[in-house]
Write a structure and sequence with these properties.
The structure is a single chain. By secondary structure, this protein is mainly alpha-helical. Helix content is 66%, strand content 0%. The protein has 9 helices and no strands. α3 packs across α4. The termini are far apart.
Length: 234
Amino acid sequence: MKTTSLAAGAADTLDDAELARRVGCRDEHAFELLMRRHNQMLYRIARSILRDDAEAEDAVQDAYLAAFRNIAGFRGGARLSTWLARIVINESYGLLRKRRRAGVVLPFSPQSEPWDAGEPGEDAMTEGSSEQPDAAASRGEVRQLLERNIDALPDQFRTAFILREVEEMSVDEAAACLGVPAATVRSRTFRARALLREAMAREVDVATVHAFGFAGARCDRIVAGVLARWREQG
């Protein structure tokens, strides 16, 4: 039997234990609130392991259903976000094992969708924003460059980096999610940062050579303009 739904104004005041209790009582609004609070974090974690948008979404959905089935086991000893993160990590590695047993090779595509992408136009200028379109485009390009290089990190480094640097978890929280010592989290995160710096520096070096490109239409346009004026003077 479903409990009375949460009042709209009371939603943000629920602590982890109360939210978990209400979900366990099949309060649909509480379950929706739980998902909306943690969707982005869990998707990013799943995506860091699976490197595939659709599979990451599947893992998050499976994790929520597993969480619901085991919600009575949440005692509040850890944060609800940490408890959910461990579940989605397990689900993601389960999907990864199935993929490997099936011999599926996921090609790495630098043109894949940004992996925390939301609705179309999410990065567009909001009403009243002072950001210019060219600045927004540049920011989007930098973001995609970063995401491609995060995707290219070794698996263990990539997930540790997402937890620490993207989700801004403490070392202890990330260690609890991954089931490894805090020192391991520090080491993996440090190595991930170093690899990202190297990769980004290489790409910037390549891009620098081609900065303010001149060949092609611009070159033709200038030549044609000068010749036209030169002929007029003759």
